Amino acid sequence: xxxxxxxxxxxxxxxGLSVGYLMSIILSxxxxxxxxxxxxxxxxxxxxxxxxxxxxxxxxxxILGSGFGAASVIWEMDNWGILKQSGIYFLLVxxxxxxxxxxxxxxxxxxxxxxxxxxxxxVIFAAIWIIQYLISQQSIKKINAVLxxxxxxxxxxxxxx
Length: 161
Known about the structure:
Shape: elongated
Largest sheet: none
């Protein structure tokens, strides 16, 4: 288990860095009026330069990817129910995401801003969870159909049909 956590966190760092960079491109397309905005202006102001802000944001995006990667082993805890897995995973990624979002100024630095950001985070988490759950249910139905087919075929073979 420790090897999986370490491996996934190491793979998660470049993935987090890539997602962070991709998000800066997407957000620039939406809000920067044809310019590239690698980070929010508040972070640049807080750190004294855009370069310092981008370096910190890149590092924290990598940390975020590492954390999500390491936490993914929770989904393989077969002796835990889905509610326990979901709750612990959500708690861990929230404890990781919220401080990073605050430090990078991805959220407004007020109680209202934090609550809005957390609400958006929760809605996105819930949507992804529901989609994954529905996909899993479809996979289970397909597996059960194959098993029923195989069982039916064995009964027919045993009865000489």
